[in-house]
Amino acid sequence: MVSTSSPRHAVVVEDDADIRGLLVLVLEQLDFVVTEAPDGLSGVEAVRKTNAELVTLDINLPDIDGMEVCRRLREFSDAYILMLTARADEIDRLNGLDTGADDYINKPFSPKELQARIRALFRRARTPAAPAEDTGQSDELARAAVVQQSLLPRETVRLEGYDVAGAFRPSRSVGGDFYDWYQTHDGMHLTFADAMGKGMGAALIAATVRAVMRSVADTPAIDAAFGSASATITSDLDQSGSFVTMFHARLDSASGTLSYIDAGHGLALHVPADGAARRLVSAGPPVGILDGQLWPASELELEPGDSLVIVSDGVLDAHDSLEEFQRNVEKVARSGATSDDVCAALLELAPASTAEDDVTAVVVRRKPNTAL
To answer: Is the Cα torsion angle 330, 269, 338, 316 positive or negative in sign?
Structure first.
């Protein structure tokens, strides 16, 4: 009989070294023991040797393609297979699932979305019994929770013509979620981040990120500010083997122009007063993944009646697909009378009774024009 404390094994089949390294980091954060394979044949052998429970599989490999790898794996393995592809056409996606894959994700991918897909796959399996509670661990989690709560902004943003709110509900294990904001002479600055990991380690990394992001507030250009901050943060992350996903924005309240940088977060939506919501795409990987990484800034216009909605992966985890997630977040964003109402409803999308991670939401709504 296999012990419930036995580690889970995963195999990453990917020929690109940078992408392979990112996948390993993401899976290790989910407590997998990871084996790397740069091609299809070595991937098949690695799964056979490790009896892996999860395989991430690139379609384009230098020897045999991912479709063939998937077919061969299904001859002896019932591991969950998550295929990664840069191909956009639907035929490839369907073929990948027909060969026995359990799910697919497009490149470039968000680490948050990848982790959510993996958690969704393993929710199909029987949940092992929880180990007896460790008193020392409980004390550490309690201290981490205090640190995490202290990172939330104490001041209320009061911008004429805007309604801004945030909400946070920690999980039992305490993660690295936090949001921060403060007013400026022309609007506001906003940071929404998640340090990978749990407990005090993640909470302390989050505290460092908050302090560093505040320290660059006077740097005029958002891309220069973010680049300087990320270089400082990366040196700390190197020591801990962690990384941070982040959404950082600056709002000019008079014009409604929002300048932003998304570093691997990928869970911010622009919900216009008219028209469909749009998910804001990441400008690059999380902070701490690649040395010397630069993230370009983007802009959007918050017109009267528009909203910016940012949530953590705790909300994404509660949905079976990214499409369902976006549909429900947009619905909630349009139904609340105030930003506080919307934040409360967003947290309810991931009920506390089933949520496995922190759940966090921030809403910036530009009030509609009421003048006739």
So the answer is: positive
